[in-house]
Structure formats: structure tokens, C-alpha cells
């Protein structure tokens, strides 16, 4: 029973932390990170090679658009750690203001104001790393699929033959 109460107390502290200590930038990073993870997973598990080949056969620009979309995803992933760094600097500035306005700041005062700043870095790096892993899997899958389509589509294989001659 004591362990259960201890577990509830830990969860209460976690919920309290999320309600009071996270900044707008934290929520922006968490939202963007989750959006990218879900988007990449959906893109990977809903794109089948036969369907992809059929679309590439119907639309000659489809392969290029797919490559451009992959670059957009890579750019958004690169933004995550930068947002984390921005949030850290912003949080440290706020902590320094509190320290400057307090007569004799204690370690607890300083740590209380610096912890949210560091959480922003944590979330930025966490979601950047997770998304980078998913992106590399997605990129490898689509690179192979695009190369296969280019080799097997009549227009692209004929045009690549002309370029070689």
C-alpha cells in the first residue's frame, strides 16, 4: 500500500511539473516532434511499392515531389534542437532576471528557474534523435523505392538511356 501511495505521489509531481514548469517552446517542440514521428510512421506504413509505382507511372513528377517532401521532413527535424537551444537561452535569461531581482538567492531559487530551461533542451534533443532515426529508415525506404521506379518506369529508363549515350 505504501508503494502505491509513493507511485501516486511521483505521478502527481510529474503532472505538476508538466502543468507549471513547461514553457510554450516545450509544448511546441513536443507537438512538432510527435507530429513528425506520426507523420513518418504513417507515410512509411501506408506507402506500398505497387501503389507507389502506379502513382509514379501516372505522374512523371511524383518521384521528384517525394524527394522534396523528404527534404521538408529533414528540415523540420533540424529545427527541433534549435528550438531546444532557443528555449534554453530564453529560460536562462528568465532565471538570471529572477536571480538579479532576489536579494540573496538560494540554490533552490536558481535551480527552480534553470530546470525548465534545461527541459527545453531535453525535449528538443529527445525528439530530434527519435525523429532522425525514423527519418533515416523512411529515407532509405523511399530512396530504394525511387531508384527501383526510375529503373523500371518506361519514361525514366528510356530518358536515362538517352543521357548515357
The major pleated sheet works out as:
none
- The residue fraction in helices comes out at over 70%
The number of helical runs is: 6
Mean pLDDT level: 83
Give the overall form. elongated
User: What is the domain total for the residues?
Assistant: 1
* Number of DSSP E strands: 0
Class inferred from helices and paired strands? mainly alpha
- Which strand-content bin applies to the residues? under 5%
List unreliable stretches of 5+ residues: 160-165
Q: For the CA atoms, what is the radius of gyration?
A: 24 Å
Word description of this protein:
This protein is mostly helical and 165 residues long. The chain has one domain (24-153). The chain is 90% helix and 0% strand. The protein has helices at 2-20, 24-46, 49-58, 62-101, 107-152, 154-164. The protein is elongated, with a radius of gyration of 24 Å. 18% of the residues are buried.
Short account of what is shown:
With 165 residues, the protein is mainly alpha-helical. The chain has one domain (24-153). It has helices at 2-20, 24-46, 49-58, 62-101, 107-152, 154-164.
Amino acid at each position: 500500500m505504501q508503494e502505491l501511495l509513493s507511485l501516486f505521489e511521483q505521478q502527481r509531481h510529474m503532472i505538476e511539473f508538466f502543468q507549471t514548469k513547461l514553457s510554450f517552446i516545450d509544448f511546441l517542440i513536443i507537438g512538432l516532434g510527435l507530429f513528425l514521428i506520426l507523420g513518418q510512421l504513417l507515410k512509411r506504413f501506408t506507402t506500398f511499392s505497387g501503389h507507389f509505382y502506379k502513382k509514379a507511372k501516372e505522374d512523371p513528377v511524383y518521384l521528384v515531389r517525394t524527394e522534396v517532401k523528404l527534404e521538408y521532413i529533414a528540415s523540420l527535424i533540424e529545427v527541433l534542437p534549435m528550438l531546444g537551444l532557443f528555449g534554453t537561452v530564453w529560460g536562462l535569461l528568465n532565471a538570471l532576471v529572477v536571480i538579479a531581482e532576489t536579494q540573496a538567492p538560494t540554490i533552490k531559487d536558481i535551480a527552480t528557474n534553470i530546470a525548465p530551461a534545461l527541459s527545453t533542451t531535453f525535449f528538443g534533443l529527445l525528439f530530434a534523435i527519435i525523429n532522425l532515426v525514423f527519418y533515416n529508415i523512411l529515407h532509405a525506404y523511399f530512396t530504394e523505392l525511387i531508384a527501383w521506379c526510375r529503373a523500371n518506369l518506361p519514361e525514366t529508363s528510356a530518358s536515362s538511356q538517352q543521357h548515357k549515350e
